[in-house]
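During the reporting period the student researcher (J.K.) took over the structure-prediction task from the postdoctoral fellow and processed the backlog of single-chain submissions. One of the processed entries is reproduced below for the supervisory committee.
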Amino acid sequence: MEKMGLNEIRKKFLDFFESKDHYVRASYPLVPQKDKSLLLINAGMAPLKPYFMGAEVPPSKRMATCQKCIRTGDIENVGKTARHATFFEMLGNFSFGDYFKKESIAWGWEFCTEHLNMPVEKLWVSIYEEDDEAFDIWHDEIGFPKERIVRLGKADNFWEIGTGPCGPCSEIYFDRGPEHGCDSPDCKPGCECDRYVEFWNHVFTQFEKDAEGVYHKLPNPNIDTGMGLERVACIMQDVDTIFEVDTIRHILNGVLDISKKEYGKDEKEDVSIRIVTDHIKAVTFMVSDGILPSNEGRGYVLRRLLRRAARHGKILGIEKSFLTDLVDKVIEAYGGSYTELVEREDYIKKIISLEEEKFQKTIDQGIERLKEYVRQLVLSDDKVLLGQEAFKLYDTYGFPLDLTMEILEEENLKVDIEGFNIEMEKQRERARAARKDMEELGWEKGHQIVIGEEAKSDFVGYNDFSIYTEVLALIKDGELVSEVNEGDKVKIVLEATPLYPEGGGQVGDVGVIHKENAKIEVLDSNKVQMGPDEHIVHTGKVVEGSFKKDENVKVVVDIERRMNTTRNHTATHILHKALKEIVGNHVEQAGSLVTPEKLRFDFTHFEAISKEELSKIEKLVNEQIFEALDVDINNMTIDEAKKAGATALFGEKYGETVRVVKVGEYSMELCGGTHVLNSSEIGMFKILSESGVAAGVRRIEAITGKEVYKYISEMDNRLKGISKSLKSNINDIEIKIDTINDEVKKLQKENEMLKNKLASGSMDEILQSSKEINGINVIAHKISNLDMDSLRNLGDKLKDKLESCLVVLASDKDGKVNLVSMASEDAIKKGVHAGKIIKEVAKITGGGGGGRPNMAQAGGKDPSQIDKALSRVYELVE
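J.K. obtained the following structure tokens:
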């Protein structure tokens, strides 16, 4: 098998599938374009989800990509192992309702054997255990030997995530040889040893799983394959780790040149060398895709990787800034395939240089401060660094939490993570609005739209719900334009607007912008920083006609949605005060979300609120609503507001002039949101849930107005349905349920007594099943529908009847397996260990357990394996 470079493998793959009429698309950016559920692209199929879900029409029914991916779930293991990486490339070919298993398998085989020239005898495949169609294709059509086709279960060879499209998989493995194996005669794909490397997964998406767990055949099944490029390169270059692959080794050699270290000489240094190698590659690609270092979201991931690389450079003895020198190595290795690296080289180096310089200035101070913390911990014989101190290192010295944890781990110390998270949440609340604005705009990376100070919108929507105004700016596809037409997605800046821009936890308004024969549906409203200025930007779609800059238009708020939101916002103010009264004055708002459907209120508190307290809070809020309190809103100076007793939100920054919202004499807070004129407009308030979201932070979710009416109606209908099912008057439901529960308990007790009696009555039969092995009487018996207590009681009785014995009993109950193992003292002296035996037996039923030499118990998940498991008992004793 000829050695093949990583870049060559990538090109061969894409060229091959282009020859099979696939549309070969360049890698999507690492920043998800249309998927807010993902922070970063982490799989080859992730950018293609809209095509698989049918939400969008793909450019071709056949596609192939080599997708850049970032995964940070195992970042702590990167460098410590040979296989973990943050940045990797995923080769994939995809069919959207076009070809299926036959072609996917045939082309996979053709590429491996004819283009990569892998030895046929080195290849194995796995299929889903029930997928006879895939077996027939591999065996009958490809001619693959059946003894090298392994059937694996759902956990290994069936792809599904909750409900929706799913299906079986077929994976191709490479046999690295017995020297990498476990010496087991049963060693084959699926074994946990390192002999067989899975490198290409073919997912056959042929089912739709519904909420009831039923699988329905898709009329147009899809193909989704994924092949890790670095993993294939390991195979093709006959190396053991991804760090020995040609392109990655090129970067690693750069680390060695700068650090003057020798790879493979010192394991601790090798870990740092691998971390720097991996992270600089990830950082370079992330910056090239427009991600900038920050303390939130994907920017935080970038900063974390960059600073971790810089620190491990210091561990290697590199005192100067060095990361931009390594960028050259990344571009040398990957620039031919990813031209954006070459095109943005200066930009990438500038961003990384500034961040590294910033980090270098603070890291020495931070390390000195951390050393002081460590010294204090050692003196006080403490093992945990306070969360506030860890946050100070993060906030003041730029130490990410994982960096602090990593350094402390070297000293066998830990961090109070919960305390750190409380401090972090306070900071997130302060930054949330601005961060969300920039994320949602999703404009081209590095591109700033500067409209000018004259384009700042005035918000006039506290009292006016429709106005005439002028269009100051139109933005389409991230660019300023002079005109937009029907079908265009647009962002629009107006001279004045009644549409509330998201802020203070309240969602932005929706509505319409229209003129004669033209209409824009506004889907969201936000405050956005563009260049040096902040603007109110409305996001929407032109549904009719066209619009031009400087035109006069009419803007109308969706009144019903606004009023529902407004009710919830005023309710949060009343709730805040009620919490202080019932729970304690220590309660502070720690975040909120106000939507038309519900309100969410986060607050500082150290424990769950009892049902009784929640009832009091709910009652108190409703009392203020029923009192029909006037809501007065006034603008005043911050000093005047504080003297008046207005509540300011902890951590919020306020200008000299503030807006004070007063609900009767009950509540007074600083707030820029929209509110009802009288508390009675809220209608009614109902708490749905109370839960913890972080250490010392609780959350209440509640509804008001029409949503409460809807909730009560639904509850009423459910109660009527329950009373009908119970054949009871609605007022007597509780009595009826208590009666049924008593009857059930009585019957359960009788049932257990009968089962025990039945099991005891079977003792003679069980004793007769005893086998003598090496002077030990061994019983391995299955009894149906016994719980663990009953199984133990029966085991004790059997053990009392026998000398020198081992008793292993199994029972299937409620779809699970109960296992008990007991050994007499003389059997133990002969080497029998009940705990070790039960552990091995339980594995076969998909469970685990253990115990003492004389008695042990275990549980299992698969009752169908009980007979096989019990037969193993005799083998173990022998």
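The committee noted the following: DSSP finds 25 helices and 35 strands in the chain.
J.K. will present the remaining backlog at the next meeting.
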